[in-house]
Amino acid sequence: MALHVEPDLDGAGPPPAIRAHGLVKSFGTLRAVDDVTFDLAPGRIYGLLGPNGSGKTTLIRLLTGLTVPTAGWAEVLGTRMPSRPNLGRIGYMTQTDGVYTALTVSENLHFFGAVYGVDGGEPVEHALGIVDLAGRRSSIVGTLSGGQRRRLSLACALIHRPPVLFLDEPTVGVDPLLRVQFWAHFRALTDAGTTIVVSSHVMDEADRCDELLFVRSGTIIARGTGQEIRVQAGTADLEQAFLRLGGNVEVTR
Amino acid sequence: MSRRRIVALFRRVVSEIRRDRPSLALLFIAPIVITGLVTFILRESQAPQVTAVVVNLAGPRGLAVGNALEAALRTDGATVSDVADEAAARAAIADKAASVGIVLRPGAASGGSLDVTVITNGLDPSGDVAQVSAIQRSVLAAATAATGTAIPAVNHATVYGTPTDDPVTTFAPAIVAFFAYFFVYILTGVSFLRERTGGTLERLMATPVTRGEVVLGYTLGFGLFATIQVAVLLLWALGSLHVGALGPLPAFSIGLGISASGSPILAFLVVVLLAVGAVSLGIFLSTFARTELQIIQFIPIVLAPQFLLSGVLFPVSSLPSILQPLVAIMPLNYAVDGLRQVFIRGADLGVPALQLDLAVLGIVAAFFATIAALTIRRDVV
Ligand SMILES: Nc1ncnc2c1ncn2[C@@H]1O[C@H](COP(=O)(O)OP(=O)(O)O)[C@@H](O)[C@H]1O
Ligand SMILES: [Mg+2]
What we know:
Chain A has helices spanning 56-63, 84-87, 105-116, 121-130, 146-158, 176-191, 226-233, 238-252, and strands at 18-27, 30-40, 45-49, 71-76, 79-80, 90-93, 164-168, 195-200, 211-216, 219-224. Chain A is an alpha/beta fold. In chain A, helix 3 crosses helix 4 (121-130), helix 3 runs parallel beside helix 5 (146-158) and helix 7 crosses helix 8 (238-252). By secondary structure, chain B is an alpha/beta fold. Chain B folds into two domains: 51-158, D-Maltodextrin-Binding Protein, domain 2 (3-Layer(aba) Sandwich), CATH 3.40.190; 167-375, no CATH class. In chain B, the strands form two sheets. Chain B has a four-stranded mixed β-sheet, with helices on both faces. Chain B is elongated. Chains A and B meet through helix 2 and helix 3 of A and helix 1 and helix 7 of B. Adenosine-5'-diphosphate binds next to strand 2 and helix 1 of chain A.
């Protein structure tokens, strides 16, 4: 399972896990994603940070092939999206929970497990353990709290142990203690080679990411580690950095 | 197509409905209650109670006929009394003291003919018709008695089945088909709408599941419940389980006891094909709905025409010719006809009319399954 990536001798590094090239998505006159190009290396956590409506969800939907780009292309693990077989190697935790509220916790996990082709109890138990829901396995999802549903939603995205994970605002409504556990688990996954893209509209978890991509009006206005961005913007505060690097356009408009 | 994924989808749909008590009640109890009620109404409708007031304005000749008519009416169980004039008769009807007035006048033709005018209340046309036809029967009986000439009897035979005065025999196939269609459509439509609005379809589209697998999984899941529903309804419609008197309880029978000549398996096949089409229709129409209420709002557009144009209420042959092309494209029409072919005619698979019904239902189901799959697009979730 563990995939230790050694830098190539010629310094080229491993092939990117996720690539976007000139991605554009227009809704009428609105360009929700506006010419996004990047390569994301495997085994790292990328933070997609930007205010509500900046285009994070649309960008993730383009990368997973859930929506057709107006222009440009996306590639995951070397395969052009959309690709249905490739979806078996991707986990996607949607911004809305996207779990069946009339079913129990374990029925949801068994269902998504079967859909991804991982059978039976072991993957379900493993996923339940990660999100600490083993005690609620027989509860109907409709009776769970918002945070518990969020955890189930994450478990459903992890059940098939995909090498690429897209998490759209995963920690909303999750209590601080469990957040710490989540991030510890994300780190364990990337140590084993998984590539994770996490979106958030708050900055307080930014420093847990290996690299940040600031999104504003559908474009990437800055990219780098938290430290690099602080230096570039000349401020120790990432909120301030976001505004100084061009994020203020929305505020002043 | 992956069998494992289809089975997973099927099991998911089944677990969802299994826990949904109101939906189960809608599927199984509602049709039984409604068909039972309709059958009871159709079979046990009471003969109209006739309370007649007679006005004789035709002298002694009118008196003789009037007496014969009154005697015939009394024989049929009516209450009869005489009043002086038409105004008194109208007042009695207005006061609800009488249900009908009979006015005897000298006829326009010569030779001592008589005119009989029947006056009714006028607020309840179908009740009025029942009153008038009761009077007509008595007039006929009175005329027969007065002239001493017997009126020829009219007998009735049929090519298929036996003549029956049980209206439920033709009504039951229609109602079984309609309920299967109606409930399967509503349950699938609402369920799939939840899938679209609840974010689970978005998530499903991010897995290796194909839209064909989704349609098939749904069809199997809802098809299972439609199958059980149809089996229960057919048992109910055809069955007649006699339960003997027990202590203070009188004897009664369970089931509508409709006499059917064909194979219940064929009847079953007809309704299941119809229900499969209804699953896809529900998936397809859920694309155009934003709320569960809107699924219900499609009923007047999609289901009401089928109800009116498929022989459920009005015989197809009596519909205006301008509507006949519409009749020809109503899926429900073929199911109702197919069921009648099986129930009344006792048709088997060799009968061309039944073959046509099954073929059309199969094509409709395949057509709607295809367009349903086309609406499950990534961008449309
Ligand atoms: N299906 C759609 N149709 C029209 N506009 C959309 C659609 N999806 C997203 N948008 C618009 O695109 C912009 C970006 O949305 P989104 O990607 O959800 O932002 P974020 O996830 O960063 O909050 C918003 O202005 C939103 O209203
Ligand atoms: Mg979003």
